[in-house]
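Appendix B, record 7
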Amino acid sequence: MTPRERTIATLTFGQPDRIPFSPGGPRESTLAAWRTQGLPEGVSWFDYLCEQIGIQREASATSGGLGVDFRM
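Structure tokens (predicted):
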């Protein structure tokens, strides 16, 4: 499954091959706190998180836009 197919299957109560992982972004204050707690300076927080929890980052994880309008 592509990341797009996986996300759409999840949002439409389908059966994705695995759960998509896209946590969103932290607030600036949270990011500053993480830096004081050991997040290396100049490192992407998302790449570091994926590395620490042992998941492989998908190539299009930051591309955004599913091509679907979910507005009501």
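Remarks on this record: The chain has three helices and no strands. Residues 49 and 55 are 9 Å apart (CA to CA).
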